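Researcher: Next sequence.
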Amino acid sequence: MGNLHIVSENELLVELKAGNQNAFNQFYGKYRFKVYQNLLRLVQDEDVAEDLLQNSFIKVWEKRENIDPERPFENYLFRIASNLVTDYYRKAATDKKLQAKLMAVATELYEHIEATINFKESNAIIQSAIEKLPPQRRRIFIMCKIEGKSYEEVSAQLGVSKSTINDHIVKATRALREHFFLSQESIIMLIVAYYFNN
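Model: Next structure:
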C-alpha cells in the first residue's frame, strides 16, 4: 500500500495489525503529541513522560496482533498509556518523590473539579464524600456549592453567622480532599481518566 496516508483508519489498523511499519509510523506521528501532553500533565516530568510515551507505542507494536480494526485506535492507545501511568504511580507507596508528585497532580485536579464541575452530575467519588459530612456541614455545603446560594442567604435561612458558614465550607472542602487522598487507587484512576478524556 503505497498511499497509506489516504486510506481510512480502519484500513490502516489492518495494516498495523499485519506488522506494517509504515502504518505504525503514521499512528505514532498522529497521536504522539496528544499522548505526551496528557502524560506530562500526569507525571510532571518530561523524561518520564517521554519514557511512558515510548513504552506505550512499544506495547502497541508488541501487541499489534490484538488490535481490533473496528475499534478506535485512540481509545486503545490511551488505555495502554493510562495503564502505564497507573503502574508508575503504584510505586508511590514506596517512593516519597512519586508520592509528592501524585499529591500535586491530585490537588491540581481537585481544584479544577471544584472550580468547574456541575455538581448535579458529579462524580460518584465526590457524592460519596459529601454524604459522609456531618448533617449541618453537608446541608451548608450543598446550599452554597450545589445550589449556588450566597453566605448571606444561607445565614438568613439557617440562622447561623456567615463566619460559621465559612468554617463549615472550609472544613467540608478539606474533608473532600482527604477523601480523595485516603484512596490512592481512586486518586490514580480519577486523575488518569480525567486527563485522558479531556
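Model: The chain has two domains: 4-92, 95-195. The radius of gyration is 22 Å.
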